[in-house]
Amino acid sequence: MNVYVTMATAERVLRQLRRDPRTLALVLLVPPLLLTLFRYVFDGSQMTFDRIGGPLVGIFPFTMMFVVTSIAMLRERTSGTLERLMTTPLAKLDLLLGYALAFAAVAVAQAGIACGVAFALLGLHVQGSVVVVIGLAVMNAVLGMATGLFTSAFARSEFQAVQFLPAVVFPQLLLCGLLAPRVHMAHVLYIASFAFPLTWAYDALSHAVAGTGSAKIVRDSAILGGVIVAALALGATTLRRRTP
Amino acid sequence: MAVIEIDTLTVERGRVPVIVDLSLGVEAGTVTGLLGPSGSGKSTLMRAIVGVQLVTSGTVKVLGAPAGSATLRRRVGYVTQAPAVYLDLTVAENLRYFARVLGASPRTVSAALQTVDLVGYERRLAGTLSGGQLSRVSLATALLGNPEVLVLDEPTVGLDPVLRRDLWAAFRRLAEHGTTILVSSHVMDEADHCDRLLLLRDGQLLADDTPAGLRARTGKASLDEAFLSLVEATA
Ligand SMILES: Nc1ncnc2c1ncn2[C@@H]1O[C@H](COP(=O)(O)OP(=O)(O)O)[C@@H](O)[C@H]1O
Ligand SMILES: [Mg+2]
């Protein structure tokens, strides 16, 4: 691994994103718009908005980065640039960390804007620390990115890559506890929910929003960190120098 | 000394043998043409030489090391058949990125652009270039850092005659400075630019000879006809 090559890759990915202002605008503006929508859907119940809106701020980056990364990496595979890079001294980790750095930077901006709008304009109320919520949002973005990198290996086309969103992300959204408390779920689902990273992401966010259980936030973050490392390692195994 | 040494190489793709028990050597400082019809296995053979192709059996060595070794990654330049270029970056941004990945000095960027005759296109978005210009950007990325071996998969396809002549002159200059060049083509009309020709058909080597040797052996004046008579002789 080479820091210089990693940074060059991160810079290149950011340049590509900058050339695509529409995607950038979607990534940065859709979360605050959806939050606004939520705010007025729950117009009569500020408490519900507080309970769901806070964690949502941290979960948007996960879904967005999942899609953006899986398509970016799929393009890298299908355009031949990946094959070309695999004949250069670039280490697989340089490529993965380059993507991770670039998208983490976008995630900071995304989470920052979403939080700014939610707290300043929509009156979202958070008992805990706003900084912790933003930090968790960035972590979820990196998690989404790592998962997207890995799943992109199983997509042959952009159509397929997009379909991984409902297949991989929606079940996690349903089971993570955001929509209904996990303890109220069918027992099998409750048990299964422990296996999904988004469950831990939501758990950490809900504690951060409620201002309770900083020990749990640390535990959840550690689990998420482990999942990120594992997903990146799995992603690295799907980047083959030699292909059939 | 043979820069590329292939010994009894067999490659299967999707269970179909694409390269069959092939052995050959490519000498240092030469321009070697890998010629054969579409589907004969040229790209597969080149992928094996740069070490991105899973091979079934046999060995491929480049500069004395197994193909694809980490030590070779700065010493071997590769141009894929489809241009490997980021369409949403400018020409200069593409080249600067590959230069940084290869650890090549930024100065080699302008030299590479000169060789492929794209000076003045630095700020153009790659996605707005024509097919021929795009394949020259791809070629330029392989020239960065002056690799000792260049593996070029159909670099002159779709280019006009003037550009093709200039590129072949550039290949010749590079070879005179010691670079070993393996270049593939599915048309025979460029074969006379090569020191040596490898004729590939259905994954097998039909001939490994100089253009003059090939003409003498087959008694044909045109290399196209020489190739056909070799095909008929083996049929
Ligand atoms: N990814 C692949 N999977 C299976 N077969 C392939 C693949 N790529 C090429 N082939 C087959 O391998 C043979 C040789 O292809 P290729 O090396 O691209 O030939 P050329 O470059 O001479 O046109 C062809 O029959 C082609 O259909
Ligand atoms: Mg080919």
Automatic annotation (TrEMBL), chain A:
Localization of this protein: Cell membrane
Repressor as UniProt keyword: no
Membrane topology per record: Multi-pass membrane protein
Annotated keywords: Cell membrane, Membrane, Transmembrane, Transmembrane helix, Transport
Main location: membrane
GO molecular function annotation: ABC-type transporter activity
A single Gene Ontology CC term: ATP-binding cassette (ABC) transporter complex
InterPro entries reported in the protein's UniProt record: ABC-2_transporter_component (IPR051449), ABC2_TM (IPR013525), ABC2_TM_bact-type (IPR047817), ABC_2_transport (IPR000412)
Transmembrane segments: 24-42, 54-74, 95-122, 128-150, 162-180, 186-205, 217-239
Keyword presence, Disulfide bond: no
Annotated ABC transmembrane type-2 domain residues: 18-242
Protein family according to the UniProt entry: Belongs to the ABC-2 integral membrane protein family.
Name of this protein: Unannotated protein
Gene source species: freshwater metagenome
Highest classification ranks of the organism: unclassified sequences, metagenomes, ecological metagenomes
UniProtKB/TrEMBL annotation, chain B:
Keywords (A to Z) from UniProt: ATP-binding, Nucleotide-binding
Chain ranges of the ABC transporter domain: 4-227
SUPFAM superfamilies in the record: P-loop containing nucleoside triphosphate hydrolases
InterPro entries with a match to the protein in the record: AAA+_ATPase, ABC_transporter-like_ATP-bd, ABC_transporter-like_CS, P-loop_NTPase
Keyword Endoplasmic reticulum part of the UniProt annotation: no
Gene3D superfamilies, alphabetized: P-loop containing nucleotide triphosphate hydrolases (3.40.50.300)
Protein name: Unannotated protein
